[in-house]
Amino acid sequence: MRIGESEMIRNKVTRRRTVIASGIVCLVVLASVGVAISNYATSISNKLNISPHEPECLGGEDRMPASTSDKHDTGTKEFKPDELLVRFRRTVSVGVAENTVAKLNAKILRHFPKTDVYHLRLGGDLSITSALETLKKNSDIEYAEPDYVYRAGSLIIPNDDYFSLQWGLHNTGQTGGTPDADIDAPEAWDVTTGSNATVVAVIDTGIDYTHADLTANIWRNPGEIPGNGIDDDGNGYVDDVYGMDAFNHDSDPRDDFGHGTHCAGIIGAVGNNSIGVAGVNWNASIMALKFLNSEGYGYTDGAIECIEYAVMMKVAYGVNVRVLSNSWGGGGYSLALYDAIAAAGAQNILFIASAGNSASDIDEMPSYPASYDLNNIVSVAATDYNDNLAYFSNWGASTVDVGAPGVSILSTMPMYHVTMNDQGYTLNYSYMSGTSMACPHVSGLSALILALHPSYSYVQAKTRILSTVDVLPSLNGSILTDGRINAWRALTTTETSMCINIMEPTASFTAIEGVQYNISAWVHTVTDPILGASVTANFTTGEPSIALKDDGVAPDKSASDGIYTASYTPSVTGSLVITVNASAPSFAPTSSSVSGSVKSVPNYVFNEGTYQWVELDEQTVGLCLGDDDMLTITSPFPINFYGDLYSNLTISSNGNINFENKHLGLQNYPIPSANGYAVKRLIGVFWDDLNMRTSINHGEVLCNIVGSSPNRTLVIEWKDVAHYFNEGSATFEILFYENSSDIVLQYQNVIFENPNYDYGASATIGIQYDPQWGTQYSYNTPSLSNGLALRFRSSQASSLHSLASGIMGAPENTVYYVRTGNVFDDSALGFVYGKSARGQNIVSQWNGTHVNQTTGKPLFSENIVTFGGRIANKVTKYYEDYGLAKIGFDENATHYMFKYIGTGSIVYAVAKSTYNPNGKDYFAVQAFMDGSRTVLIFTGMASAVGTYASGICFADLVWPHIADFGESYYIYCWEDLNGDGVQSSNEMSLKASGN
Prior knowledge:
The chain is of the alpha+beta class. The radius of gyration is 33 Å and the shape is globular.
């Protein structure tokens, strides 16, 4: 991972070779770039507007070994090629753990006692993939994960050419910015200039501890005698005078890159010493902990070692470490790192983290460590000298806590040559930009608060920082507090009133009717969470109020932290204002509101249709996608996706499409899912780690328009694409239709000649509206076949409640409709049929003759359907002739259930297959949703002479997702033989049941 960088989108050369020129990360932003099509046919160019891309079609480089790509990585995350982090369950003995390691032919490099994590190095030819798969199956293992890389952020060199230039501390407009767009440092220094009793550990590239503007404020280990080559204090580190170096495995945290020294100067450059710059703290104690190397990157194990060193020095040696400053990011989600940060919190240590420089919403695309859900983390965005969010800064309304100055920040640089000097930085002092610079402003403020209030817990220090921000319009809705830190207010505010910050949902939210969400509110004073409050959420839609709890019972994450939470499922569409009211003894009641909307979003159902492969002609556009590449095109007609219309769609070489112009990476996830890159609007056609192999002219993505307006079809085909490591080849396509929301996926060949990948065994197939709403056909399951077509059709979920009471004694030829919204869709399929006591055919039919959408044959008519003899035989043959198949029996083998296998709605029906021994009638019933999933259709039948009636009973049956039906699920009915509307013991009972 590199400094200040989060969720980077890297090209394959950077990701695979880990080549970082001069320590600066060179990014290829793939989400908005494409390939020129001047060399393609003019007619096709007019149909597809393809965004600019690389100037030429570069070869898709074959994947390197597991050091840089692996099915266990997260997107494009890098990690060490042969090392793992493993945590055994607490009950596992040392002997068992060592035996497990020995079986892997691995070596224990170290054991982190605070987190109980083992750092292993693999031996022999065992890959990261194989080792992780083996450990995942071991019940003695709590977790195992790669040793991720962390990286330095992309740093912007301004054109401007000591305290007067530090606008972030005192802005007079000296840079052309807005006066007072600063943290009010001079005002804060009237209260305190800090204290060397409070230790701030800078976890970074090291520090130039000899710098004239830093040396007086560098922490020195009182238990260590410098230069004697002895571990005097017995902490495991020899001559760790200023800290230690976890990358080079020594005790000298000398900065050989430059970034850590710059951050240290922002925190604690000596103030009022007539040279250089002033830190937020004039008097500080800065511990140097190095895990990033001379190129600005390091690994998870190094970060953990730094954190554990700080915790150890506090717990075992009484060093007053209170703040960890962390201007780095970019690795995957690491449970080991999470545990290490949590261990620091358990020792009352704040963890300040830069939000990252990817200009992304990290609520949706997490950046670690800033996005870990730990209460001792303060996540920091960058602001500029006009109090705007910096153009490069990440944000997140619930993930990012505060803003701080991060553009053109002047601070200390090493007084000797380092790598960053080659990038144009000077010795002693230089300007830098990034959330890396914003983070130490907050670290410095934390130390100021703790110098003034040394008995504060980290919760009190964090609460004071977040409660005293300058609220800025530019940050409204972008970060939790809507504000940039103000040091003077943080030190002087004495306000004791109750405050509410609504954490979920965020401003301008869009919720989906019928989907469960959390409402979460932080209730606090300037310094403390308020416990035991009565907190409720009220809704302008008239829905009942909900009580929010701080009891640690799900969905509340932690008890007694002042964060009150409850689950909420919206049931009314339209505009919605949620108002959270709080009251507590000794406080005046207060409230806060958040506005948004609730919409009804259709669901999609799927069925296996008729395979009709679309062959693309010679005018087809080749999209020239490389490995792990993507491209945005403009469709010639709007694409209807979940009821919304989209013009642009982004196509990935890894078999997926999204409508948000985002890069999904190579790791597939379930649908719906908030994992991975959490893109909301996406389609997994065959979402897997695929390889275009264009370097050897094999594997490509094609695109063309078929047909004429208004019945055009957009066809996107992945042709002869290999799985990673160049295994096999697959061909599949997706079809979008003009004036239809249907989506068809077709699979010509899904065999890679490897059972781990064949038929979708490592792929995701499905569509998603957001991380809580989608339809999955399969995930990492060999569910596909060659010659398979899947049609996803917009539908609408519905619930059924106590329908039996209104249909007793219904006349013949009657169809009942339960409407939940839209009008009936005439294209839907279905019918109800039966036979009365007098032998009359009962066939219901509406809006003309319905046909099988695959064969075009009529589904039914009174002339075709004749009943006589044994109805079971007739029914079975009838269904098989017209695209239906028998799929099961009930437990008594007396009732058939049928499933429609054409391209229309999936139909379920039951039919009594034996003649009633009482000489009474038998019948068949069908109940299903129409094509829009808004109408349930079923029938009641009665004797012509009125001697008995039949009805349908759906006793509080909730209509499930259509794909959840299996062979054990039946929709049953019962015969009311005596016509009294009450089911008697001698009356046939056919009830709803489920798998």
